[in-house]
Amino acid sequence: MAKKNAVKRKRPDWDEYFLGIADLISERSTCLRRQVGALIVKNKRILTTGYNGTPSGITHCEVTGCLRDKLKVPSGERHELCRGLHAEQNAIIQAALHGVDIHGGVLYCTNQPCSICAKMLINAGIKEIVMESGYPDEMAKEFFEEAGVEVRMAKAGKKK
Q1: Does an H or E element contain 37, and which?
Q2: pLDDT grade, residue 79 (50/70/90)?
Q3: End-to-end CA distance of the chain
Q4: How far apart are CA 36 and CA 129, in angstroms?
Q5: Distance from the Cα of residue 147 to its chain's centroid
């Protein structure tokens, strides 16, 4: 039973809740340019998480330096010129490693996925993308639209 004079707090809606978690996940990133966090959810339950950074056993960019910076590669271009994996890729890989069915899931992400991640998410059966901010990759938007994946910008989590 609630107290009569209890202060009513604002409970986050589902988008705020999951994007707040994506923000926290992004803090594990080892990328020098952009810290991204992602999680895949189904039926309001977290299935997998991922952040961007180098694969296990590979030296972090904090040690080697950023190849993309050295080559002056702009954001949204030449994704193959990077030591790291994207947060979305790591969330998909985590599902594969642990036998988790993500088909029909929703991806919550701090940034819009790139075109490479978009293709992976489409083939993994992700039905919706909810993100805090965009990314300069028009091809990814086109892929999602053509595949019928709903993409929407939501209110940012607490960090942003």
Answers
A1: strand 37-42
A2: confident
A3: 35
A4: 14
A5: 19
pLDDT at 159: 47
Q: Which of 88, 128, 138, 145 is catalytic?
A: 88
Pairing status of strand 128-133 against strand 106-111: parallel
Q: What are phi and psi of 51, to 5 degrees?
A: -135, 160
% of the chain exceeding 70 in pLDDT: 94
16 in active site: no
Which range (98-102, 106-110, 137-141) has the least confidence?
Answer: 137-141
- CA distances to 75, 99, 116, 158 from 79, rounded to whole Å, are 9, 27, 8, 28
Residue with the bigger pLDDT between 7 and 72: it is: 72
Measure the CA–CA gap between 31 and 100, rounded to whole angstroms: 26
Tokens, residue 141:
């938007």
Q: In what order do the strands lie in the sheet with 128-133?
A: 45-51, 37-42, 106-111, 128-133, 150-153
In this structure, the dihedral spanned by the alpha carbons of residues 157, 107, 49 and 137, taken in order and rounded to 10 degrees, is: -80
- pLDDT of 160 reads 42
